[in-house]
């Protein structure tokens, strides 16, 4: 395995991969908190359409990718809070974008390999410039997320109170989506658009089940992300003849770790964090305090 | 800021509130004094939560003057504590009870914040005051409705506000838990001379502790002691239709047609 590390392109891939894994995990935690995990899947696919379109127009894919992602991201941020409506809109836009992307693909079959690598990620073709790029952008995103940390968490959890406290909700929502768009753009090169969700949400979802303190959950998420990406890059190198892309290994290990954690987590949740009293019958009795449709309020006495 | 007992904490003059083209309240006139505990009653859509949002500076009155603590309402007023209606939370959230209360303290500050003993003890005190210390480190998604409600109250009280706005704090609580919350609110707020506006659907648990009732219905409102407001005559005139107030088993029941 260690001979892999002697290759320049692998070093570049690992550097870029590590950077993107850290910020993907950081942002993924907030995606979960804000209920935007679906957007975490939709945006990379929309990005794919942008990249394919750019390729068709003869410009570097990263520009099309970035423009589409930012546009869609800001659009989602401005769509507002109703998760149900928002998910439908996101889903519709995402499938449209995927269709567009596939159409671009079919029109220009000469670029199929390039588009394949946008979809699935590749360890090849990460230049030193790209690696440097990743470092700079991920440092920027990381710093921005640190700066936004408290108001972002507050506005995600308790939007009404945060609004009342003067947290600039719109600004934070839009900025967050811009940061997400940047994260996606730099991650797509290695991981690909189709399974990027796995790097965004997998580590954070796993860590959130293990630690309840935001800081620890974030640290663990970043750690897991880095381990996953190293694993995936090295495996993709070792088995180049099988030519399974990075994202395949990434999705596999992410799922392989998440599943047992998810299934076993009830065992350690609720223990040690408090003295849990068993739910009593009166806990379930909400007769007297239900929201009523009319003032015709002849109440039934709760069972004493 | 000196605060004489006569100085109004909230004053509304000829205020009209419109929401989405609909007139929610017209010509509201209201004065609330320091230390008062006021229950806000009325059917859904009467504008109870909207009134709270007006006082918080989240919406603007379409007519009239509003003064909160002597000035027009503005967002980010740390002298006002607010606990909105409780929502159901995802169980997966990596957020503890004490983190939620901590938001009230510095959630609106930039940066990640560093842990400090001082901060922890302030939060612990707030948690203790609402009886939430025992589940301080539990993830919020796993707490019951009543427990989460207590956190929201602690969060609202942690900055030592002079005005506390609570939107249906007794929802999702059974009788005994509801009474605990009512006693908690009453004792803390009396001790600190905090003015409280509390939106509720059921006046009965609050009757022992409130000073006045603000009844909102039919784009109008009336304020006074429970004896003055919750009468058949007053409510009938407010609703413009027959409403009967029945006293039974020491409780008040409002019976009547809701338009």
Q: Largest sheet of chain A, described in full?
A: none
Please name the CATH topology of chain A: ABC transporter involved in vitamin B12 uptake, BtuC
CATH-level-4 superfamily name of chain A: ABC transporter involved in vitamin B12 uptake, BtuC
- The rough form of chain B would be described as globular
- Name of the CATH class of chain A: Mainly Alpha
Oligomeric state of this protein:
heterodimer
Count of all domains of chain A: 1
Number of strands of chain A: 0
Which residues of chain B sit in consecutive blocks of at least 5 with pLDDT less than 50?
Answer: 1-5
Q: Report the mean per-residue pLDDT of chain B as an integer.
A: 87
Indicate the overall shape of chain A: globular
> Strand order of the main beta sheet of chain B, please?
5-6-7-3-8-9
What fraction strand of chain B? 25-35%
How many β-strand runs of chain B?
11
Q: What share of residues of chain A is helical?
A: over 70%
Order of helices and strands of chain A: HHHHHHHHHHH
The CATH architecture of chain A can be named as: Orthogonal Bundle
How is the secondary structure organized here?
The complex is a heterodimer of chains A (304) and B (259).
Chain A: H1 8-33, H2 37-57, H3 61-79, H4 83-107, H5 112-120, H6 128-157, H7 159-164, H8 169-191, H9 196-210, H10 214-238, H11 246-268
Helix pairs in contact in A: 1-6, 1-8, 1-9, 1-10, 2-3, 2-4, 2-8, 2-9, 3-8, 5-8, 6-8, 9-10, 9-11, 10-11
Chain B: E1 8-19, E2 22-33, E3 37-41, H1 48-55, E4 63-68, E5 80-83, H2 97-106, H3 117-129, H4 145-157, E6 163-167, H5 175-192, E7 195-199, E8 212-217, E9 220-224, H6 226-229, H7 232-239, E10 243-248, E11 251-256
Parallel strand pairs in B: 3-7, 3-8, 5-6, 6-7
Antiparallel strand pairs in B: 1-2, 1-4, 8-9, 10-11
């Amino acid at each position: 395995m260690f001979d892999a590390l002697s290759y320049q392109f692998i070093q570049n891939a690992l550097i870029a991969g590590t950077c993107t894994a850290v910020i993907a995990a950081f942002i993924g935690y907030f995606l979960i908190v804000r209920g935007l995990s679906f957007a975490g899947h939709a945006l990379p696919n929309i990005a794919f359409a942008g990249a394919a379109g750019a390729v068709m127009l003869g410009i570097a894919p990263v520009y099309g990718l970035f423009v589409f992602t930012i546009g869609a991201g800001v659009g989602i941020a401005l769509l507002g809070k109703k998760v149900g409506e928002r998910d439908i809109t996101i889903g519709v836009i995402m499938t449209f974008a995927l269709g567009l992307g596939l159409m671009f693909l079919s029109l220009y079959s000469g670029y199929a390999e390039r588009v394949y690598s946008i979809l699935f990620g590749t360890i090849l073709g990460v230049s030193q410039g790209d690696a440097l790029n990743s470092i700079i952008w991920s440092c920027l995103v990381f710093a921005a997320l640190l700066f936004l940390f408290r108001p972002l968490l507050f506005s995600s959890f308790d939007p009404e109170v945060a609004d009342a406290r003067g947290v600039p909700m719109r600004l934070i929502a839009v900025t967050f989506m811009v940061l997400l768009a940047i994260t996606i753009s730099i991650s797509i090169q290695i991981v690909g658009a189709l399974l990027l969700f796995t790097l965004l949400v997998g580590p954070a979802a796993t860590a959130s089940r293990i630690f309840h303190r935001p800081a620890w959950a974030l640290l663990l998420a970043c750690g897991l992300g880095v381990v996953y990406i190293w694993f995936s890059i090295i495996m993709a190198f070792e088995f180049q003849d099988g030519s399974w892309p990075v994202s395949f290994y990434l999705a596999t290990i992410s799922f392989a770790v998440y599943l047992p954690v998810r299934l076993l987590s009830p065992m350690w949740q609720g223990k040690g964090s408090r003295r849990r009293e068993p739910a009593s019958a009166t806990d379930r009795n909400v007769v007297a305090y239900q929201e009523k449709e009319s003032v015709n309020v002849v109440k039934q006495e709760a069972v004493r | 800021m000196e605060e004489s007992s006569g100085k109004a904490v909230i004053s509304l003059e000829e205020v009209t509130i419109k929401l989405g083209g609909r007139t929610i309240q017209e010509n509201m006139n209201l004065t609330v004094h320091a230390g008062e505990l006021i229950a806000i009653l009325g059917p859904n859509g009467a504008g109870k939560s909207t009134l709270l949002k007006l006082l918080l500076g989240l919406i603007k009155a379409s007519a009239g003057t509003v003064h909160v603590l002597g000035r027009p309402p503005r967002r980010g007023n740390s002298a006002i504590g607010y606990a909105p209606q409780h929502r159901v939370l995802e169980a997966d959230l990596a957020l503890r009870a004490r983190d939620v209360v901590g938001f009230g303290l510095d959630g609106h500050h930039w940066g990640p914040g560093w842990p400090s003993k001082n901060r922890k003890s302030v939060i612990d005190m707030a948690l203790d005051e609402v009886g939430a210390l025992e589940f301080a480190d539990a993830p919020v998604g796993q707490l019951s409705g009543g427990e989460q409600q207590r956190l929201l109250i602690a969060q609202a009280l942690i900055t030592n506000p002079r005005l506390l706005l609570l939107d249906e704090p007794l929802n999702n609580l059974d009788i005994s838990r509801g009474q605990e919350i009512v006693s908690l609110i009453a004792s803390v707020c009396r001790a600190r001379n905090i003015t409280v506006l509390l939106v509720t659907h059921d006046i009965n648990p609050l009757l022992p502790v409130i000073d006045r009732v603000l009844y909102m219905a039919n784009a109008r409102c009336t304020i006074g002691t429970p004896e003055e407001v919750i009468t058949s005559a007053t409510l009938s005139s407010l609703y413009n239709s027959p409403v009967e107030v029945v006293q039974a088993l020491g409780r008040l029941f409002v019976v009547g047609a809701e338009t």
